[in-house]
């Protein structure tokens, strides 16, 4: 699901397909993988354990899917983490991975209790094409931002 229909997106179809196929690895005490559109019992357990109704999955790496230097990615990710911490959000380290290996993996964050509008705003601020969000049904959704 997205706010911008795929046919109206500025993101090419191959990139959208890569986002949909990606494995969003949550490095919780017992790691698990999120997939767009698939119910995750592990995510449901995390929502219950943390007593929240939603989570956001976001990165500051590779703005608009343009690969940048490791130093630039690290600085942007640190800025995102600091902003989330200053706003009182807990995070779990994550990694977005292309199972085909065509796209480089990206350090990411699962943000506990992050409402949809806030993950959307952060994605726009950090120049991302899309973010992942899940409500209490524990079904990750791809949210296109452009």
Question: Could you describe the 3D structure shown?
Answer:
The chain has 146 residues and is of the alpha+beta class. The chain has one domain. The chain contains four helices and seven strands. The protein has a seven-stranded antiparallel β-sheet, sandwiched between helices. Strand 6 (130-134) and strand 7 form a beta hairpin. The two termini are 14 Å apart. The mean pLDDT is 93.
Please describe the structure with a list of short key phrases separated by commas or semicolons:
single chain, 146 residues, alpha+beta, 7-stranded antiparallel beta sheet, 4 helices, 7 strands, globular
Summary of the model, kept short:
The chain is α+β, with helices and mostly antiparallel strands. The chain has helices at residues 13-21, 41-50, 70-86, 116-125, and strands at residues 23-26, 32-34, 55-58, 91-97, 106-112, 130-134, 141-144. The protein has one domain (6-144).
| SS-based class | alpha+beta
Strand order of the largest sheet: 2-1-4-5-3-6-7
Our count of helices gives: 4
What is the H/E string? HEEHEHEEHEE
Rg over CA atoms: 14 Å
The span between the termini is: 14 Å
Largest sheet: 7 strands, antiparallel
What low-confidence regions span 5 or more consecutive residues with pLDDT below 50? Answer: none
Number of strands: 7
Kindly estimate the percentage of residues that lie in beta strands according to DSSP. Answer: 15-25%
Arithmetic mean pLDDT = 93
- The figure for the number of domains is 1
Give the helix proportion (percent range). Answer: 25-40%
């Amino acid at each position: 699901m997205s706010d911008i229909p795929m046919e109206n997106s500025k993101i090419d179809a191959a990139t959208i397909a890569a986002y949909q196929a990606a494995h969003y690895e949550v490095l919780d005490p017992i790691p698990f993988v999120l997939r767009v559109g698939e119910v995750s019992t592990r995510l449901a357990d995390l929502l219950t354990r943390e007593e929240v109704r939603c989570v956001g999955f976001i990165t500051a790496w590779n703005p608009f899917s343009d690969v940048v230097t490791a130093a630039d990615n690290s600085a942007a990710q640190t800025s995102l983490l600091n902003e989330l911490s200053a706003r009182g959000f807990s995070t779990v380290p994550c990694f977005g991975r292309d199972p085909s290996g065509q796209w480089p993996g990206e350090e990411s964050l699962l943000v506990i209790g992050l409402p949809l509008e806030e993950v959307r705003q952060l994605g726009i601020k950090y120049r991302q094409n899309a973010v992942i969000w899940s409500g209490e049904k524990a079904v990750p959704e791809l949210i296109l931002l452009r």
